[in-house]
Protein 1
Amino acid sequence: MEKKPTSSSSIFERLRLMKKCPFCEYNYEAKKVVVLEEYEESRLVHVTCSDCNSSILHIMLVTQVGLNTMGIITDLSAEEVKRLRYSSGITEDILLDFHKFLYNSNNSFSKLILDYI
Ligand SMILES: [Zn+2]
């Protein structure tokens, strides 16, 4: 597999990001790095591989004992992470609406699940 050189390694060094996709080892491209949040040395960064299209959410926190980093595999786009990060989550009304949806006798989804059980 060809290893395309990165157009700009400085963003990876500045953000302390890994430069290669852990799945296919393709070099990440700077244009696929989205900084979602940044406070001093702590940040939340979304990176998508141009080759295999996998995405990782990098969380970097500076604490009293040093820099802590964590990468989480995600199928969310950067825009979805932004939207969901501050959403109110699932409310009781949403759950009740879903319950009603599932138990509606005219609902084919409900029939599909009941047939499966
Ligand atoms: Zn990849």
Note: Residues 1-86 form one domain.
Protein 2
Amino acid sequence: MRLIFDIRAFEVIDLSIMPIFDPTRCDGCGLCVTVCRCGALVMEDSIVSIIEVDNCGWCTDCELVCETGALQCPYEIIPIES
Ligand code: SF4
Ligand code: SF4
């Protein structure tokens, strides 16, 4: 688990972190593409690709709707006590 965002300072720590996709577990249902609001996920010929974007919201919605575990969000947004 990696810290991506210090919510206290509203400081982004690492913009390069994106969800991780395991194509061997994907059944091509397309649910992740429908919930993604940043356009990072695209479906071509029933195969998902992750495009690096500047504004992934790190919402984890893609991980939540993926019933096969093909998408993992390896980060956490942590409020840090002052
Ligand atoms: S974490 Fe949210 S914004 Fe980022 S790729 Fe997944 S659904 Fe899209
Ligand atoms: S929700 Fe999961 S199984 Fe469905 S297309 Fe996306 S990655 Fe594949």
Note: Residues 16 and 74 are 12 Å apart (CA to CA).
